[in-house]
Amino acid sequence: MIPVARVARPLRFVSSGALATGVHWLAMAALIGAGLAPAVATAGGVVAGAATNYPLQQRWTFGARPGLAALPGYLLTCGLGVLLNSTAFLLLHRGLALSVAPAQLVTTALVAVANYTLYKRCVFHDRSHPPG
């Protein structure tokens, strides 16, 4: 039988990430509506989503101590995420001529897998407060 924690953490990650992704997409849509290019708008959306995501992932998903101890690693991961997001989005949107929504959907999935792996192994590895 699979331990509950092995299933619960990925579900919390997805739930937290879904909320942050919603913020990302809303910001992206607003920036596109304001006249910015989609590639620039998605980078702005990443920043808005990251600010929403940090406390959710830190405390709820990974049970790390509250505070800023994990922030440097999180920001580094975010920087890598921005690079991955921008690169994948440009390849899909411009290179493969996918429209904005499908290109961002595929990009979001790729970045989510990378982020979960990095958060678990490098950023929120404090086991002193396991999530409940």
From TrEMBL:
It is a multi-pass membrane protein. Pfam families: GtrA_DPMS_TM. GO terms for biological process: polysaccharide biosynthetic process. It is found in: Membrane. The chain crosses the membrane at residues 25-50, 71-92, 98-119. InterPro entries: GtrA_CellWall_Glycosyl, GtrA_DPMS_TM. Keywords: Membrane, Transmembrane, Transmembrane helix. GO terms for cellular component: plasma membrane. Residues 12-124 form the GtrA/DPMS transmembrane domain. The keyword Membrane applies. Belongs to the GtrA family. This is GtrA family protein. The lineage of its organism: Bacteria, Pseudomonadati, Pseudomonadota, Gammaproteobacteria, Oceanospirillales.
